[in-house]
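Good morning,

Attaching, inline, the backbone tokens for the sequence recovery test we're adding to the shared suite. The designed sequence is right after.
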């Protein structure tokens, strides 16, 4: 068996990743795909057992131990063909660690693996170890632990799955934060014992999910919509145009409440996530690989604007993974009372690469900005669009390195707004 990949310094190369896959295939043939296996990474050194998915992550993240030349922990016999002595590993095998990793409930372990693979990318592959320390992947191990821990002994639900379901219930049931906390405390009181790491309030639950990349950026805005206190203006206390104070409350003791706050949901990570998931990756290429061009208008790709764009920008059109976007916005009253004069403006971005039964559906309509009220921004909406425009310029001019989960390769993703409403 070829083991030359074990000495490769580039752990993102196709040779190394194919070697990892061949190792896992060899191991599962001997111990069975349903069991946890010893992890031969440089940190675990076969002293810990994990699922195959987590072992794969460890081998890519930390590298395999170069001294592990005979895979005796995974079924390979020594050259003498004598049976290996399992005395040293008996404690591990019989300790019940094989059952620690739960069944693929809600496919959370697979999702975490895809998040990790998409998060460690770096333009300079020689600096890959530094990528593993970045903020977007630094809590990966903790998330994987929460995807394995049970809420209580004997439970069928893990901590991460439990919190995801409870927050999903909160959103669809339109529960307030206070009602959510009360419900969680009731559940807690019914359990005779529970894991100490379970977050029992909305604040701790959001911290857990923030590591999944589901957060947003708060950007202070001028009271009269002149500027955003962002980038070159981030440290200003007053607007340079109207001289109005940045804060409506500033007691000089640390308490500062700005007049307006723009909620900014970065677009690039979410577009990369579409290619980081095997479920949506192929759908993002549907318009090129599976669409039937018979002259009937069923999808934006059937329209003349799409075809004219391809002719005008052939380099962009050459890769079907480049993203075509639609952008829409409108004001609404968040309080549901039409007699109240208040207007909040969400900016919605839709990826048109997806097939027609998905591209306009709610799960794929991405809110990029939430412009605060109480009055419509009018012409000043361009002030609030700056973070999104900066991202779109980067996506158009330079592109971003992205992991394609369908074939396990990297490409430079570009994007363009095809139309806005």
């Amino acid at each position: 068996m070829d083991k030359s990949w074990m000495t490769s310094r580039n752990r993102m190369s196709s040779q190394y990743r194919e070697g990892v896959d061949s190792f896992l295939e060899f191991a599962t043939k001997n111990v069975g795909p349903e069991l946890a296996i010893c992890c031969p990474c440089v940190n675990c050194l076969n002293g810990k057992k994990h699922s195959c998915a987590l072992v794969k992550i460890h081998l890519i993240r930390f590298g395999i131990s170069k001294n592990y030349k005979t895979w005796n922990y995974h079924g390979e016999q020594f050259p003498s063909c004598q049976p290996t002595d399992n005395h040293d590993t008996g404690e591990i095998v019989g300790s019940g660690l094989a059952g620690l990793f739960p069944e693929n409930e809600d496919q959370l372990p697979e999702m975490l693996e895809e998040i990790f693979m998409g998060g460690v990318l770096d333009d300079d592959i020689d600096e890959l170890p530094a990528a593993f320390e970045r903020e977007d992947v630094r809590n990966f191990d903790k998330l994987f632990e929460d995807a394995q821990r049970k809420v209580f002994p004997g439970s069928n639900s893990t901590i991460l799955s439990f919190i995801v379901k409870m927050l999903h219930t909160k959103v669809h049931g339109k529960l307030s934060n206070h009602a959510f906390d009360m419900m969680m405390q009731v559940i807690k009181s019914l359990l005779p014992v529970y894991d100490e790491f379970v977050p029992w309030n909305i604040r701790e639950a959001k911290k857990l999910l923030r590591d999944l990349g589901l957060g947003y950026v708060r950007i202070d805005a001028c009271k009269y919509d002149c500027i955003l206190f962002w980038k070159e203006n981030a440290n200003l206390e007053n607007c340079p145009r109207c001289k109005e104070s940045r804060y409506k409350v500033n007691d000089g003791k640390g308490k500062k409440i700005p007049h307006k706050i723009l909620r900014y949901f970065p677009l690039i990570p979410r577009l990369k996530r579409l290619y980081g998931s095997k479920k949506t990756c192929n759908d993002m290429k549907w318009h090129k690989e599976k669409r039937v061009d018979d002259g009937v208008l069923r999808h934006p790709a059937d329209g003349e604007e799409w075809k004219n764009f391809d002719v005008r920008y052939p380099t962009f059109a050459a890769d079907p993974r480049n993203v075509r976007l639609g952008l829409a916005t409108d004001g609404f009253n968040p309080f549901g009372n039409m007699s109240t004069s208040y207007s909040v403006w969400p900016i919605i971005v839709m990826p048109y690469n997806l097939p027609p039964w998905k591209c306009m559906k709610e799960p794929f309509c991405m809110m990029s900005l939430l412009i605060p009220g109480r009055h419509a921004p009018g012409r000043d909406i361009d002030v609030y669009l700056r973070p999104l425009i900066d991202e779109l310029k980067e996506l158009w001019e330079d592109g971003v390195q992205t992991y394609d989960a369908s074939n396990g390769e990297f490409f430079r993703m570009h994007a363009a707004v095809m139309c806005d409403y």
